[in-house]
Amino acid sequence: MSVHPDSVRAAEIGESAALPFPPGFVWGAATAAFQVEGATTADGRTDSVWDVFARRPGAVVGGDTGDPAADHYRRYSEDVDLMRTLGLGAYRFSLAWPRVRPDGGAPNPAGLAFYDRLVDCLLEAGIQPWATLYHWDLPQALEERGGWTNRDTAYRFAEYSETVLARLGDRVASWSTLNEPWCAAMLGYAGGIHAPGRTDHRAAVAATHHLLLGHGLAMDVIRRHAPDVPAGITLNLYPVAPHDPANVTDVSAARRIDGLQNRLFLDPVLRGGYPDDLVTDLEPFGLGDVVEPEDSAIIAAHVDWLGVNYYRDYRVAGRPVPGSEPAGPEWVGAGDVHFVPDPAAPRTDSGWEVQPAGLTESLLQVHRGYRRVPLYITENGAAYPDVVADGGDIVDTDRVAFLDSHLRAAHDALAAGVDLRGYFYWSLLDNFEWAEGYAKRFGLIHVDYATQRRTPKRSAHWYARVIGLNGLG
């Protein structure tokens, strides 16, 4: 791949940023194992819940599956070369549980060897490996024993974490236990939109608690094997506002949605327990039945940082209003809530509103409402209908505008005192976008799935310049 002029390190041409970020700010990009690796039956890997879910007719757009994805399992060295060319300082990836411990059973040497090679390749390229232990690919064999509704799964997760840390703990720069447990629990067990495709509110509440328990148990494993390596958890956090702040029904709706999306996860991790109002809200769905006395202290294990994944914000009403849409089944106990769109907001190809100010607000809400902990934007990105021009160029100006506006929002948070230490774009590569299959492209790098040819988009070159400047020009 040739180096685009925008990719030249700014330090070499004497430029400086009009909006600089702090020295040492981490610039990265992120992926997830099931979304990029492919090779779903290679070298002893067995089914995850996503392999099985993707085979269900109608579950995934186009009937797409996790093969070939971006074939990262075989092409990782090419991808690391792309990262190096773009100047990435860090690569956030996840490990596939069914590759490391197939069926949740004994460790698989071939699966572990892949992550050995990947981590060593990153280090040789001068790129920090940021590893996530769980990004939704639960071994199907464990789902058949109850999955995350079964408390035992949290202990199996700790066992898997022990295998990973024993092998890689000396070389990974930073660890995350879970990625977006809200999605795994609520979309997977209540909404039926994600694997395993269940629609049971009590199951979703049990899964939420056991995921958080697994987080706490994994933190203990990380501390034992890599006591000097920073570790945390990654949550998708979205600010929630009432449609009419003077309407008590709308204010109540905002409280409940904020509780389910944000405080249900932030409070146990950073405050040592579930919020009282959510304990009341979720009592009919069995929260009290799954919490044991020692759990709060385990879940509240000290984290060194918190990852914030941000894509959108929410405005909600406790009643139907013009243009609103009722909450889906993933919103446990909130079926009367309506989501109110902003007709003036631009939208991505996923239909998500582009609301960069919400990123600033999310970061400020954590900064002001919880104990001080360093924050990283561990995911932020957008799908757009990229077009490959005749000359091969991909002029994704919409994604460049998205990146620019959200980095400015991140800079606003820094200016307001937030201890923000890094930004990871989602995603490095076009990939399998869960229930959307290959229909949505989030990548900085375009992937032709038929040939697996990689082509950096205009946004990749733009981001490379930001990295070189350590800020916005």
UniProtKB/TrEMBL annotation:
Superkingdom of origin organism: Bacteria
Enzyme class: hydrolase
Chain positions recorded as substrate binding sites: Q35, H135, N179, Y311, W426, E433, W434
GO cellular component: cytosol
Keywords attached to this entry: Carbohydrate metabolism, Cellulose degradation, Glycosidase, Hydrolase, Polysaccharide degradation
EC number: 3.2.1.21
GO biological process, one term: cellulose catabolic process
One GO MF term: beta-glucosidase activity
Active-site residues per Swiss-Prot or TrEMBL entry: E180 (proton donor), E379 (nucleophile)
Catalytic activity: Hydrolysis of terminal, non-reducing beta-D-glucosyl residues with release of beta-D-glucose
Protein's UniProt name: Beta-glucosidase
Annotated source species: Amycolatopsis mongoliensis
